[in-house]
Amino acid sequence: MGVDALAIPSGDGATKADVIAFAHRLADFAAPLARHYFRTELPVEAKADASPVTAADRAIESLLRAEIRSVYPDHGILGEEEGGDFERPLTWVIDPIDGTKSFITGMPLFGTLIALVSEGRPIVGVIDMPALGERWCGTGDAAWFGALPARTSDRHLHEARLFATSPDIFVGADAEAFARLSGAVGLRRFGGDCYAYGLLASGHCDLVVEAGLQVYDVMALVPVVEGAGGVMTDWDGRPLTPAFDGRVVAAANAGLHAEALRRLRA
Q1: Distance CA 244, CA 217 (A)
Q2: Residue 120 shares a structural domain with residue 161
Q3: The CATH number of the domain where 51 resides is what?
Q4: Is this model's pTM higher than 0.90 or not?
Q5: What gap in Å lies between CA 15 and CA 8, rounded to an integer?
Q6: For FRET with 188, which of 11, 22, 205, 228 sits at 20 to 30 Å CA-CA?
Q7: pLDDT per residue over 120-170, tens digit each?
């Protein structure tokens, strides 16, 4: 992958190649566990924010946390189910099942998201789709779909294919802004959760616009989208940091990103 010599800030001497391999290893551990629980009769609980959670979410995150602690005890961990922070220079960010609503309804478009964040900047990301057997990995300067390079498209706004998880995530002024943008594209689709960002990285769709996301929803996506040639920011064009406001624009190329921001801001 051409990254063996790219060192990361770490007292344990790990290189970026090391942590890429480790991120793949984590995804390899998580995938069979997700498939074990998928389409079974799992009790579904509601968290404080009313989002659903299952034993699968908790089991996968617990497994990945244990593995990270055993290999990189000096790294931080932040996960959707058990929390965490960014107090250490290097932090692993985990979303054990991104798309729990898809998961509990038997839809295979859920994923496991794994990122390594260096001082607030995601430097390695994995989007793994356990039920589909598909995986994207990115480093911000390169991205792969399986073993093949992933590249975004060069489409313009009028022909762009736009995804969002649901129209329900846009409220008030955000809904008006999304309507302006979606009315200017070639077509729009809803659903897919993290899968849409993988499709964008491989050139099948061109825009993903979201609101109401959390840090564990996005950190793994950024290195994949940007590594494939895309641009991913908040709605004001700022880089996505742990303090972002939950709104995201991922675009296949810089020109499309600029056009999308103009529509959202109009």
Answers
A1: 11
A2: no
A3: 3.30.540.10
A4: yes
A5: 6
A6: 228
A7: 899 999 999 999 999 999 999 999 999 999 999 999 999 999 999 999 999
Please check if 41 is assigned to a binding site: no
Task: Judge whether 217 is annotated as a binding position.
Answer: yes
Q: Name every residue whose Cβ is closer than 8 Å to that of residue 165 and which is 6 or more positions away in sequence.
A: 190, 191, 192, 193, 196, 210
- On whether 128 is known to bind a ligand per the annotation, the reply is no
Q: Same domain for 144 and 53?
A: yes
20 in a known ligand binding site: no
Task: Supply 184's token pair.
Answer: 């200017």
97 is in an annotated binding site: yes
Name residue 209's beta-bridge partners. Answer: 249
> Could you give the 3-state DSSP secondary structure of residue 261?
helix
Pairing of strands 161-164, 187-190: parallel
The tens digit of pLDDT for each residue in 28-60 reads: 999 999 999 999 988 888 777 767 888 999 999
